[in-house]
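Anyone? Bumping this.
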Amino acid sequence: MSMARAIERFVPDGSTVAMGVALEPLIPFAAGHEMIRQGRRELELVGPISDSLFDQLIGAGCVRRVTAAWVGNVSEGLGHCYRRACEQQIPRAVEVHDHSNFSISLALWAAAWNVPSLPTRTLLGSDILANSPGLSVRDGLVHVDAVRPDVAVVHVQRADEHGRAHAWGPLGITEEAGLAADRVVITCEEVVEAEVTLSDPNRILFPETKVVAVVHEPGGAHPSPVQGYFKRDHAFYGEYAERSRSVEGFTAWLEQWVGGIQDRPHYMQRIDIDRLRITRHRPSVPVDFGDE
Amino acid sequence: MSMARAIERFVPDGSTVAMGVALEPLIPFAAGHEMIRQGRRELELVGPISDSLFDQLIGAGCVRRVTAAWVGNVSEGLGHCYRRACEQQIPRAVEVHDHSNFSISLALWAAAWNVPSLPTRTLLGSDILANSPGLSVRDGLVHVDAVRPDVAVVHVQRADEHGRAHAWGPLGITEEAGLAADRVVITCEEVVEAEVTLSDPNRILFPETKVVAVVHEPGGAHPSPVQGYFKRDHAFYGEYAERSRSVEGFTAWLEQWVGGIQDRPHYMQRIDIDRLRITRHRPSVPVDFGDE
Amino acid sequence: MTSKAYTPQELMVAVASREIRDGDLVFVGMRQPMLAYAVARNAHAPNARGLFEVGLMRDQPASAFLGTMGDPPNVAGALWATRMSNAMALMAQGSVDLGFIGGAEVDRFGNLNTSYVGEPRSPMVKLPGSGGGADIAILSRRWVTLMTHERRRLVDRVSFITSPGHGDGTRGWRKTNGLLGAGPVAIITTLGVLRFPEGGGESYLASVHPGHTVDELLAETGWPLRVPDDVSETSAPTAAELAAIRRFDPGGFWTGRQLHNNDPNATGA
Amino acid sequence: MTSKAYTPQELMVAVASREIRDGDLVFVGMRQPMLAYAVARNAHAPNARGLFEVGLMRDQPASAFLGTMGDPPNVAGALWATRMSNAMALMAQGSVDLGFIGGAEVDRFGNLNTSYVGEPRSPMVKLPGSGGGADIAILSRRWVTLMTHERRRLVDRVSFITSPGHGDGTRGWRKTNGLLGAGPVAIITTLGVLRFPEGGGESYLASVHPGHTVDELLAETGWPLRVPDDVSETSAPTAAELAAIRRFDPGGFWTGRQLHNNDPNATGA
C-alpha cells in the first residue's frame, strides 16, 4: 500500500496515534510527514520520547493532545514547536498528558491486557501525578490508566505483505504499543517474502491480525537510525533545531522538507543518503527451527 | 558448571523454583532429576503446566507447595503422583495454590515489576479464586499477587558461558519467570562462543546479571521437545503415565530413570536418541546488526 | 452401539470443526480441538487462524502429528512465536472468536470442573487444574467443550467451577459478574450436542448423534435435560472431514482408533 | 575563568565517572553520563554494566560516537536488546546501582524540574518532560545529576518536581512517600560538587572545582548553600580520564569543545 493511501485510510482526523515507540531508532518520520501533508487535524500523539517528530506535527497544527514522556530533540534539546504551542498556543493550544517512560509503557500494557490501569511505584513523589489525568495514587501505589491508540505506526527493517514485521535492535515500547492499538500500520525498509519472516517467527513483532497496512518506504525513518541500514543523521537534527527556533524558520523548514515534497522517494533524493548508509555488516548467527 | 554443582549451590532445600516455563517444550527434566537425586526437600514449584516434571518431583517427596495452573501429563492426562499427594498425602501432603495460565504469568510479571499485584479479568466467576491465597477480588477485578521464585531453571538451545541464553520457538512465561526470579540457572543443548549470542542480542532471554549458572546438558529437556534439536518423546510420556499409576510402579520408574542413574549423560545412553533427533533443518534468515 | 465407518471421537471432531467460522481466530488448545481446527481450515474456514497459549499463532495446521501444541511441527511455519501473555492479551481484548476447553465434568449451565472432585482441601480426585481453561472460559467470545457423555461427567452442578460457563444459570450471570465473553455455546459429547440460549442459562439438547436415541442420552445425563421438539440428528462426518481427520491423526491417537487407556479427561477411580 | 587543559564539561564527566563503582549496573542515559560510563569502564570500573531505557544492556562502551543511546554502535555488541519495560523492571527491583539524570533546574533538596517553568497550565517555559528521569529518580538505588552552575538553575525550590530528590528535605521523606531508592547523592556542576547527608535532606558543598572559589559558587547558587569546614578542591581530570573522554567524544560534541548553541538543558528565554 502507498503511504498516502495508508495514512488516508487508517489515520483519520482525531485519531490517537502511537509513534516513535522504539525511542530514538526507527521513528516513522515519513508517515508523520504524510499526515502533515494531508492536513491531518486533532490527533492525539502517544509515545515515549518522540525525537523531533512530535515537535514537527505539533508545529504543523495537527495535534490536539500529547500523551508522552518527553517531547524534544534528543541530541539537541528543546522542542521549539512544542514550546510555542504550550507557551503561546502557536499554532494552537496542545493538551499535555505527562508521563514518564515507564508509565507510558504501563499505560499501553494496561490497554494490551484490557484492564483499566496497572500499578507501579514510579512517579511517587513527582508533580507529574497532579498534572496528568490518567495517573492516580491509591494505597501507596500509582495507578496508570490504560492508553489505547487507535493506530500504532511502526517502522521496521523488513516485513512481508501479510503484515509480519521483523525489527531488531532495542525495541522500547514497540510491542505493547502494537498490542494496545486497535490497528498497526507498518512502514519498512524492505518488503520480503513470507518465507523470510516465517523463517524466524520469534522476531515477528505483532500478530498479523493487528496489522492493516504494510508500506514499503525505504529511508522512511530518516533522520533516525535503522540498525543495519542507516546511521542517525545528527546534522539533520541539528539543522531542524536551529531552524525551528522561530515560526518563520520552522515554516520554511516544513515547506522544504514536507509540504514542498511529494513523497518520501522525492525526499530521499534530496538527502546524501550514502553518507548515512551502514556498510559494516554484522549478520546474526541463524538458529534452527527444524521440526522433524 | 556441572548440573550437580548448579543444583547444590543454587537450589537449596526450601527454594521456590520456577520450571517448565516454556510450557510443553524445553522442560528442564535433567535439572529436576538432579534435585531428586540430591534429595531436595520442601520445594515450592512454580510454573504453568509442567508436563510430568512436577509430578515426578512431587512423587519423589521433594515438594511442599505447587503454585501452578496445571499439573499432569499433557498427552496422557492425569498426574498420578500429584493425585496421590493431594488425595492420600503419599508420599507427603502438598499445598496447592491454583492458578490459570494467564494468572501465573501475571503473578510473575507483578514480581518482575516489583508491585504487590496486577489486575485482570481472568478468573472472575471461577472457584479458583476462593482456593488460592494469592488471588483476591476488588472493584470487579481479580488481583493476582506477585510470585517471586528464588530461582528459575530454564533449558535453552544455546548459551554462552557468561549466561547469555538464546531460546526459540514459543516462549510461554519464560521471560517473566526469569525477570521475576532472584536468579536464573540455564541448562542448554550447546555452549557457544559469546560472538554467537552477541550476534543477536534480541534473542538473549535474560540480562546476564540474573544468570548464576550455565550448565551444558545436551538432551537435558528429554522427553520434552527442543526446536531444531529433538522431537517430543510421546512414548516416554506414555510409559511414565502407565508406570506411575501405582506407588510401586512410580518407585521403580524413578529408580530406573533417576535414582539409579548417575547423571544426564548416562541417562542419554539409555535413550534411543537418534529416533528423536530432528534432521529436517529450517535455519532462520539472518538479520544485520551492522552499525557503521 | 453398532460398528460404524467412524469412531465417536471422529464424529465429535467433525462437529467441533463446524463451530469454527471462516475468519475466526480460534484458541485451539490440544487434542481433538487441534484436529477440529485442521479439519475446518481445510474445509469451510480457509481463513481461520489458530492461537495457542504456549505462544503461537498459525494459519495452516501443522504438517505432522502433534502430541502437544508445543511440538516442533506446530512451531515451524508459525505466524508468530511469542509469550503466553501476548496470546492472552489478544483474548482479553475480545479478539479470540472461539475457544475450546476440555474438562472432566460439565454441568447444566456449562460450568467446567478440571480441579477437584470433592472437597478441595481433601479431594476425592485431584484433577490437573485450569491450565488455560479458565482464561478461555472467561475471555474468549464464545467457547465449546468436548466430553464423553456419561452421567458422572454431565452433572447437575459441578462441585468446583474451574472454568465458568453460565454460572448459576440466571440470565446475564456472566455480564453481572464481569466475565468478558458470551460463554459456552455448545457441549459436544459422544452422544449428541447440547446448546445454550443466547444470553446464557440452561443447556438444551440440540441434536443426537446417528445411532443414538434421546432416551439413551438422557439416561447418561445427570440432570433433567431440556429436550425441545425440534431435536435433530447430528450430521455424520463427511468423507472429506474423515479424510482430513485421518490425515492429521494418522495413528488415531486422539480419535480412538488406538487403544488409549489413560484418557486425559478421566476422573480416574 | 582561565583557559585550562580541559573544559568544564570534561571535568564534570571525569567527576561523574568516579561515582561509578566497579560492578555497578548503571542506568546510563545520554550525553555526558554516557561518556562518564565509558571513562569509568576503561579505568576503575572494568566490571560495570550499562543499562539503557531504550532497551539495551552493555559492558563495553560503544566503539563510535553516539548522538543517542539508540544509535547503531550502541546496539552492536550489546548484552541484551529488549523492551523498555524489561529494563525498567530491573530498576524497579532495585538492581540498578546508579542512575544519571539531566535537568534544567535542581533545588536544595535535589529535586529536578524538566517539565514546566511557571504554571503548568500556562507555562513560561515548557521543558521536554521526564523521559526516564522520574523513573530513575524514584527507582534507582542512588543517582547523580549534572548541571551548569547558574543561579537560575540551582534554585531554592523547583516550581515543579519532575524527578523527586529528597522532596521537602525532611529526613526519610523518600521512604515515607514510598520511593524505592536512596535518591540523589551528588549534584555535579560546572563549579563544584554538592552532596547530601545519608538518609536525605539538604545538599551541602562537598568540593569546588580547580580555579573556582566558594564565594563564586555561592553567588551562583539560589539558596544559602551549606558549606562545611572540610570543603575540598575537586581533583582535576587525570590524563587517562581526558584521553578516554576524547576517545569517546572525539569532536567534543558533549564536552564543549564544539560550539553547541542548543543546550538541551537550556531553559531557553
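Late reply, but here is one note on the structure posted above: Confidence is low (pLDDT under 50) at residues 259-269 of chain D.
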